[in-house]
Design brief:
335 residues; alpha/beta; 12 helices; 44% helix; rod-shaped
């Protein structure tokens, strides 16, 4: 079945050619009729003289149709896309990286943000065929990198993510959910998609409920990795606090140093509500199970639609043109 044409301009030549062929045939017939009238009885000459039609009309029709078929072949009719050799299958995974102030806490053998970057690199390495995108969030969320199959570029964006790019250093887990729903709605399609949240989960539980229905309606599971410890640690002061207040740790409204602990409940609830999975950063078995669940999402051809070639169908009209010319030649020999 023809879906498109590789050179559609050739189709515009078919009607003019048929018009010219009809004009030439009409002119030929008029000239022959005039000659027959001058020479004698037209009916008798038509049967016995070369001035008669002698099948010329049928031959002219076959020639006209043959050229029209050749022009159709020149237009390169194309059918459905051919499966690409070694076509990549994968999913769309939008990674949401927490850049809030509490991700600077050093209770995980370094800062939580450093550990989060390493965890994301590990996950990306386990999903070689998937498209990955990056959302960064604190009090608000921003799409840093749209979905891409270039994992090297993705990793560079992850490494470049810094807390100082956000104006609001608080944590709002609802923000990346809303942004993910918008991104996937723009991408279109169903299934083959997931969100991976890498966060300490603190102070987000009450902000999730407003945005969660959007992902539930789109059937997008959320996977979460909690980075932090139940004991927690003191939150480092930002540059403004160190300069103005001369303090080493972030303080609350009455000047007390703030301790941040891992908010597992919000992350677990988010994963459970959407059919995803949760793992803590230091639980290898849980992380392996999370990856297994993530890889269980059905895959689809990734990035192949525009690159796959279509099935060329020009051979059919070209064969028809050759057949019509052969028939025209047979009629000429027979006549």
């Amino acid at each position: 079945m023809i879906e498109t044409f590789g050179a559609p301009w050739a189709l515009a030549l078919v009607p003019p050619w048929l018009a010219v062929a009809w004009w030439l045939r009409t002119r030929e017939q008029a000239g022959r009729a005039a000659a027959l009238v001058r020479l004698g009885d037209a009916a008798t000459l038509a049967r016995t003289s070369r001035l008669g039609d002698g099948g010329a009309g049928r031959r002219a029709l076959l020639r006209a149709l043959a050229v029209a078929a050749a022009l159709l072949a020149l237009a390169r009719p194309q059918g459905e896309r051919l499966p690409a050799e070694g076509e990549r299958l994968g999913r769309d995974v939008l990674v949401a990286l927490d850049l809030s102030r509490s991700m600077q806490v050093r209770d995980v053998g370094g800062s939580r943000l450093e550990r989060a970057r390493a965890l994301i690199a590990d996950v990306a390495g386990e999903l070689p065929g998937d498209r990955l995108g990056l959302v960064v969030f604190g009090g608000a969320a921003f799409l840093q990198l749209p979905l891409t199959t270039d994992h090297a570029v993705f990793q560079r964006f992850v490494e470049a993510a810094r807390e100082d790019i956000l104006d609001d250093p608080s944590t709002n887990l609802g923000a990346p959910l809303a942004l993910a729903a918008t991104v996937f709605a723009r991408e279109g399609g169903d299934g083959h998609r997931a969100v991976l949240v890498v966060s300490d989960g603190e102070d987000g539980a009450e902000r999730i409920d407003d945005e969660l229905p959007k992902l539930l309606g789109a059937q997008v599971p959320v996977f979460a990795i909690g980075v932090g410890t139940p004991a927690g640690g003191l939150v480092p002061a930002d540059s403004a606090e160190r300069e103005e207040l001369k303090v080493e740790w972030h303080v609350d409204g009455i000047g007390r140093p703030v301790t941040s602990v891992l908010g597992e409940a919000s992350l677990q609830g988010l994963a459970r509500a959407t059919g995803g999975a949760y793992a803590r950063f230091d639980d290898g078995a849980a992380r392996a199970a999370l990856l297994e669940r993530l890889r269980a999402i059905s895959a689809r051809p990734i990035g192949a639609q525009s690159g796959r070639e279509r099935r060329e169908l020009f051979g059919w009209p070209l064969a028809l043109a050759a057949l019509l010319l052969a028939l025209e030649g047979a009629l000429a020999l027979g006549g």
